[in-house]
């Protein structure tokens, strides 16, 4: 038999096997569009605007449907009821982390964000306990954020009211808060280590939000053979890992088990206590991934949210005026804002919530997976199946938020002007896998933004109607457009 015939027969066999597997699986899973052999539904999805594709498909197949990215099925949850039922009512069954081949290969199932099973449960418990311990120390996390807010203001003063791109400064602030928590000390905004950290973190965030990564995740075999941005991500992480290990080594040499200084110290002490239990993975390799998780989740996301917030405040100056009036009335111009002020500032609180709702920073959360075979809405979802929760469909629900495509702080205010909570507010996801840094991020957004607006007027270089608020990259997270702004001291 000649090689060409063998090739044709082999490809035919693989094609038939793929069709048979998909037909068998689809009989148990929620409905969805018919997948093509090998590539699945990839051509039916707009990888540049996945949430828009999900909305269209939900109108045809309902709030729970199945897509194939390559040969692997993915169940999509669309709308508040489906997301709540899965992630909250069946939280344990949907608490796994979905496949993410680009990162799985690098992080090897360690850390918090991309781990599973006992490793995830133990590391999340440790992280929450440690952040709580640091928050109750002699120098609380709120103190650290307030200090950084003042440093941020001083950096903005140096612009002398001239047009500037605030991206770097606004990302430095949350990065320095994480530095303070992880390394004990903040750094100067011109410190070369901070500059390198921000450079690689920002580049990796953009890489993860690019369409190419969606292709790599659907067809992981190409990771070892094709050039592309996934290789740049790996190179950047190698640098970050080296820097983190250097800081960890310094901590180990000066460790005082009776007086932990920061996150690394708490981990090293815990590791010594648990060194006989290998299953819990208190290793240096795991610590580097956890530190990367803290910087990755706590720097770019908060920085991007603040960039978006200032952009929206320039586009809607009437909102800015109301927020600044409330700051003047409750805080004044002299003392620093504190978290207790938030209870007396409903409009400011509503505006920050509306920023997070409107920008929809992480539209589809990070993929989940079911931890066992699950019967869900009369469908059978096999153990290990990836699940995507469309947070965008919840944050933009027109029944909960009238005119959801309009930026309106009134979405979080009642008829008397009091702040109104909403179960649909899920920018940090929900359920067992809700972001562990939610409390810190909310604190930073409130203290940073109120401190900026206490000290400066925001001046746009173009009329408000011409301010562009369209994101430039649309993948795992949204990246705000670059813009210039003038910070005019008041």
Automatic annotation (TrEMBL):
Key words of the record: Endoplasmic reticulum, Heme, Iron, Membrane, Metal-binding, Microsome, Monooxygenase, Oxidoreductase, Signal
Membrane topology annotation: Peripheral membrane protein
Record-listed E.C. numbers: 1.14.14.1
GO molecular function (one): iron ion binding
GO cellular component, one term: endoplasmic reticulum membrane
Cofactor(s) listed: heme
Location in or out of the cell: Endoplasmic reticulum membrane; Microsome membrane
Protein name: unspecific monooxygenase
